[in-house]
Amino acid sequence: MKCLVVDDELLARERLTRMLDQLEGCEVCGEAADGQQALDQAQVLVPELILMDIRMPGMDGLEAARHLLKLDNPPAVVFTTAYGDHALEAFEAQAIDYLLKPIHPERLQQALEKARRLNLVQLENISGDSDVRTHLCARNRGNLELVPVEEVVYLQADQKYVTVRSATRKILVEDALKALEEEFGDRFLRIHRNALVAVQCIRALEKDSQGHVSVVLDGVEERLEVSRRLLPEVRRNIRNGA
């Protein structure tokens, strides 16, 4: 079984790699220091199992596991953590195993055996209740493409997809616009039934000769129409310095 080891601490990765090398039927194919690197490595190395720390700077293990679900053949994930808090009970209840640091060889062997029995349905259990994401993810020609949420200028629905627009690129995600609005709260402001804009990117409102009002956004040339129904709320947010 090909394994990818993910931990932001080098010594922790080295120790876990040595332990895995001593187990029969297990091959360490690579290492990563955070969730972003784990996604990149997973696409190149195609591991069957990822042993991943939960708490890491940048993208943590929970969010990385959610993005991994978009792969054609997502790997099984076993979390590692130094924190014996109540969240661990939830992971175990959902049939996702975890290893409490310091990791003991016998417990590691049990986790590997359990990981072999994990399937996609069990892995999906972790995706619903984790923290707000730091990145939005799309598949592009079989690869995962990520945009940091803090770089998103607007989100615009188009049939079953949502366009995620940053200053430098666009990706299409399958998330519902309403779900994105609920997930990210006050970071985005609804200006139309099909559009959310990043509050921090709002520069001004402008009106055309026909009386239609659009929002001017930092970082992009596009002007997005503001619906008449939502215009008072948008103006109120701009006046309040939202």
TrEMBL record:
Pfam families: LytTR, Response_reg. Residues 136-240 form the HTH LytTR-type domain. Gene3D superfamilies: 3.40.50.2300, LytTr DNA-binding domain. Residues 2-116 form the Response regulatory domain. InterPro entries: CheY-like_superfamily, LytTR_DNA-bd_dom, Sig_transdc_resp-reg_receiver, WalR-like. It comes from the Bacteria. GO terms for cellular component: cytosol; protein-DNA complex. The modification 4-aspartylphosphate is found at D53. GO terms for biological process: regulation of DNA-templated transcription. PROSITE patterns: HTH_LYTTR (PS50930), RESPONSE_REGULATORY (PS50110). Keywords: DNA-binding, Phosphoprotein, Two-component regulatory system. Coiled coil: none annotated. GO terms for molecular function: phosphorelay response regulator activity; transcription cis-regulatory region binding. This is LytTR family two component transcriptional regulator. It comes from Thiogranum longum.
